[in-house]
Amino acid sequence: xxxxxxxxLATILAIIYAFTGKNHDVIDDRxxxxxxxxxxxxxxxxxxxxxxxxxxxxxxxxxLASKAYVEKEDSLALLILGDWSYLRQKDRDKYSKKWNRVxxxxxxxxxxxxxxxxDEQDRxxxxxxxxxxxxxxxxxxxxxxxxxxxxxFFFFEKKESIWLYKSHFVPFLD
Amino acid sequence: xxxxNAAHFRKILSKTKLVYGLVLVLFLLxxxxxxxxxxxxxxxxGILTSNSPDLxxxxxGIRSKYERDNLKDKLHPNKTDKLSWVPDWNHPKIQVxxxxxxxxxxxxxxxxxxxxxxxxxxxxxxxVYLLVKNExxxxxxxxxxxxxxxxxxxxxxxxxxxxxGFSGNLLLTGLQNNGNFLLQYVNGRLSDSYLKKxxxxxxxxxxxxxxxxxxxxxxxTVIRNCQYxxxxxxHCGGVIIYFSFNCNWPPSxxxxxxxxxxxxxxxxxxxxWFPDPPTNPxxxxxxxxxxxxDDGGFTPAPLPLLSxxxxxxxxxxxxxxxxxxxxxxxxxxxxxxEDIHGDHAKAQNAILNLSTNPNVNIKIGEETIQPVTITNxxxxxxxxxxxxxxxxxxxxxxxxxxxxxxxxxVAIASTMIHELMHSYFVWGANNLTGDDAMAFSDLNRYLFSxxxxxxxxxxxxxxxxxxxxxxxxxxxxxxxxxxxxYVHSKGIYSSPDPNISLWGYCNDIFWGSLQQTSxxxxxxxxxxxxxxxxxxxxxxxSTGRKGCQP
Lengths: 174, 550
What we know:
The structure holds 2 protein chains of 2 kinds. In chain A, 32% of the residues lie in helices and 28% in strands. Chain A is α+β, with helices and mostly antiparallel strands. In chain A, strands 1, 2, 3, 4, 5, 6 and 7 form a 7-stranded mixed β-sheet that branches. Chain B contains 13 helices and 19 strands. In chain B, strands 1, 2, 3, 4, 6, 7, 8, 9 and 10 form a 9-stranded antiparallel β-sheet that branches. Chain B is of the alpha+beta class. The longest helix of chain B is centred in the first third of the chain and has 40 residues. Chains A and B meet through helix 2, strand 5, strand 6 and strand 7 of A and strand 16, strand 18 and helix 11 of B.
């Protein structure tokens, strides 16, 4: 009986922990993705939603495999070697092919739903957080007919519970 | 006495001979001197180029001749007095062909008088220029695309006719002797079929001895080259001049009907070779491609070689040197710059200062970039293969080792041209100063804010897309020129695709990837993908030459 109670309690606590933790990340994800979209679209007409999928991390893998950061070619390399070095430690052998659709916050002054090109999509990697939860990284790509046109790495820092934009970089011109 | 007289006569004769001899010598001397004097008094002007020191004076000379000979009357339409064609004397474009023939293109502006106003008409479905050959021969140059369908459609095109990458015909009508010549262009350069006529012409001369008409002509008198106009502002597309070579009457637009304002009843000979024809359509010399050895008046300045990374196959170094040299890359880059900002001296100086800048330290190397297959949100899959990459800050280039292992030399050369364009422009814009930096920045005008004109930072989110959009829109044809020069230097003169020219084939190789990364459609998307794929995979039907193994 006690065992059953303890097991039930543990299960409930685990669920609550998982949900609260998950909810916290989801909220942060939404904040960061919305911030990126604000930076990318400015006054342009913007979409209502974006796609989030792990496969976008391939472009980070490509950057890391190039060892460009070892040569310290630019500020991006300094971030990857410095405060965002946790990005180099991720094990990303295989990525889920699943895409989640994330609906964006409404911006009062923005126009919606009439993007320039019906074939365009805005795609994001999942937001990657540092272990202390103070830094975040996300990759943004815009595709046309499923072909990537732009890839941008975005970096954020959390200060006093607020996510602040740090910088963004185009990692390469193909 | 007789002897005395004879001696006296011989003496006189001898004196007379001497006098005549002296007169003859004097005559020869004076005539020779006078010829030398003429040569000195009339200095050799040389072929007219955009860099000629007396350019302004000679352009004025062309204008004076046009006005003196009343050639404007030859441009007057025969069905209306409301339209007049006026050469835009302030915006001439000069082409030099075969180092011996100059062409000056003056855009013709159509002025229509309507309700007391003077309106400038849009030129739709065609475009006209005043063309002056060697500062002497005046032509009305009419560019048009062959009409493949009748004008029964309810909506007509109302955009200005563009000559970038022009495919179609050029009808040259002489304003001094009324001769007509028909030239064909494909993808912004003279078509191969037209160029073949040049090769056939000498054979015709040999076979028809003494004939003026050395070329087998197919002439016919036809009513062609019709122009229609609304002769007033339509309030939905401005005032329009609609060209129709085959005289298809356009449908009404916004309730306004078109009137026939001009046509010509001409003898058109479609197989006459026009000597040293203009290589590029209209006022589009840079983007149109096909310089054919024309240096545009620029002094070559070898662009700096990139230093080779360690562990990089040495043939990259050799190819890069050959490319920069054979493709006359500095000339082509300068021409692109001039085409955009119209400042010859600025373009020349920017290239010279990049060429001689001691601080250029761009590197080129190779690395393995694996292909990636992405499953898209709609369930389809996309294979992403990368041929090379350029650092947007430093301009350093990495070529994909997998591509180098597999592709033909032509494909590798095309990749190097693509990445070198990124690299030089990034380096020039980031590291040069003043006008030189501006020349490179101008080249990337999409990288500037449309709102305030300030440059986007190099980490601007749309940087990748915009660079490729710029490349596709502005200088894809010029890159093709570079590749063509390179493949010629390697002894390749025929296209592996029998349906297109070698230039068209080289153009396809660039568009194979540009049509994906720029978001723009290639002139022939399916063919571009196929031809590019053959070269990058070294498949049958490609040039088939492997050029850069480890």
